[in-house]
Amino acid sequence: MNRDIFIRNLTGDRIEMSPKGRCANELSVEEFEKSYENFFDMIFEIAGTDISSVTGYGEFDEENKAPFATLEEFIRETFSETQEGYWHNWTQMFDTTFLKKDYFDKIFAKAIQYAPYCEGRRFLVNNNTFFVNMIVDDVGKTYCTDWGRAGIMDFMMDFAILDLNKPYLLVPEKLYKYAKTKNIEIENFKERFLCMAYFKGIHTLMWHASIDDLESCESITRSINELEDRMNKLVE
């Protein structure tokens, strides 16, 4: 089944698959400050989808199945050397690109350390919430346009991607306050955010290293390195 049709069937009328409006990447910092709750509302709306018909964790495969039994298995298998396609034998990059083994191993270990906090947190996620993949309509409502990497995991993934894309927008800081204002309980906020952010961070770093995008690699590394201090200040 086509992915968009699968998502439409799963979400019913909750998700607009062909939105019209302005690319969210065009928003200024000031515009995001005024409208960030719309982005958060969208992510929680996606996460509110009934997924009782779907088992497992991970990105949906070609049959629209979430193929992993646990969140930790999803993380580990994402970095398997033996997977087919683009990432087959990807660890050769340690010798030929910006990506270095000691740094990868350190961040991967952090993702695994925090993975238990995300186990059991099964939600539909878009898993591609980079601003270039979102649309803001004339009244400010926000939509995802690309569902090719959607799957089942902790909804904190979609927030972590927003922050990875533009850390200067202070997404987790805003989310922490938003949740309190809306009386939304997010247990183990820090640990869950860090797990998803470290996982997506090194995966995104791998991609940019593979295409020799040094500027993006340096930006992603800075963002990853600052995360724990930011989160500690937030929840202290």
Quick take:
With 236 residues, the chain is mainly alpha-helical. The chain contains 8 helices and 6 strands; from the N terminus they run αβαβααββββαααα.
What report would you give on this structure?
- The chain is mostly helical and 236 residues long.
- It has helices spanning 3-11, 29-47, 71-78, 101-114, 156-165, 171-181, 189-210, 214-235; strands at 22-23, 58-59, 123-125, 134-136, 142-144, 151-153.
- A three-stranded antiparallel β-sheet has the order 1-4-5.
- The longest helix is centred in the last third of the chain and has 22 residues, at 189-210.
- The protein starts with a helix and ends with a helix.
Radius of gyration: 17 Å
What is the element string, with H for helices and E for strands?
HEHEHHEEEEHHHH
Total helices: the number is 8
Name of the CATH architecture: Alpha-Beta Complex
Average pLDDT: 95
Strand order, sheet with most strands: 1-4-5
Distance between the termini: 46 Å
Helix percent band: 40-55%
Q: Please give the largest β-sheet.
A: 3 strands, antiparallel
**What oligomeric assembly is this protein in?**
single chain
CATH fold-level topology:
Aminoglycoside 3'-phosphotransferase, Chain: A, domain 2
Structural classification: mainly alpha
Number of strands: 6
The CATH homologous superfamily name equals: Aminoglycoside phosphotransferase (APH), C-terminal lobe
- What is the count of structural domains? 1
Flag low-confidence runs: none
General shape? globular
Sheet-strand content, in percent, reads: 5-15%
Question: What is the C-level CATH assignment?
Answer: Alpha Beta
